[in-house]
Amino acid sequence: MRRFLGMEMLELIRSLPNQIEEALQYELPLLEMPKRIFICGMGGSAIAGDITKTLAKNSKIAIEVVRDYSLPSYATKGDLLIASSYSGDTEETISAFEDGKSKNLTLLAISSGGKLENLAQKYEVPHIKIPQGYPPRTALGYLLTPIVKVLKNLGIIDDKTFEDYIKLPKFLQSLQEEFEKENSLAIELASKYYRRIPVIYTSTALYPVALRWKAQINENSKAFCHTMEFPEMNHNEINGIKNPAGRCEDLWVTFLQDEEDHPRVKLRFEITKELIENSIQGYSIIESKGSNWVHRIFYLIYLGDYVSLYLAKFYKEDPIAIPRISELKRRLSQ
């Protein structure tokens, strides 16, 4: 692939398999089985919690992702709070961590340093330190893998799922050549999204994947993106894809589908395509690929990462820079 603006982001995307392999070697604390698990984070740090819920879909322990300054009122002693902040300085996560301390939750922190590491040392609770120097959204392997391993040690993620996760780096490496070809699916999708509004629809089980696509397109491509899950979409939004007609005609809808989707959800996808196709620019159907649930999830995640990179190229945007987020944080700190 020829070098272009964004080559640095390409290398960061390529680093995901190595991140997972490295993080699988981390020494982790032994924790007691919690009543519930709260994973607190924002942005690229929070998506690790969303994906964890998807991987642990058969868990009998409730897992809740908190994107806020405080925990729900029902959080209490016996629950586990995993605070995930790549920088360690995310104010919402710091606040939620302090809230967890005040409510006597079991605490675990994950960061590359910052205030969160200092608080973990102050409260004498476990802290998992991950490498510095990455944009948080490109450190998914470092942020996710420790949580997966902790939940495996607790028996919340089953042995088969964890075995599939261990094999994930090799699977991701096999996708790199596929997604970096001149005529790749990733480039095709990015071309469909260029100068249009991407809309990502998927099942509830795969909704964290759609959220990852949205965030990557927002941050890397500097483009607007909308997501919605099925079947909820059919109870409201399907009726709204009509007006204003000129705007709806700019929509390019992508359906992210999986072989394990509920039969009724599959049927809803088919009917929805027929009902909205005359109101939108067009649609794409993307089927997950892989021999197991873990690999199929990450096939879609990795595809979305590449799509966002190529869309940034089409818009001539630097996929690393996040000027508005940086300016927002600067003003908030004053």
From TrEMBL:
It comes from candidate division WOR-3 bacterium. PROSITE patterns: SIS. The keyword Secreted does not apply. GO terms for biological process: carbohydrate derivative metabolic process; carbohydrate metabolic process. This is Bifunctional phosphoglucose/phosphomannose isomerase. It holds the Pfam family SIS. Residues 20-156 form the SIS domain. CDD domains: SIS_PGI_PMI_1 (cd05017), SIS_PGI_PMI_2 (cd05637). Transmembrane segments: none annotated. Keywords: Isomerase. The lineage of its organism: Bacteria, Bacteria division WOR-3. GO terms for molecular function: carbohydrate derivative binding; glucose-6-phosphate isomerase activity; mannose-6-phosphate isomerase activity.
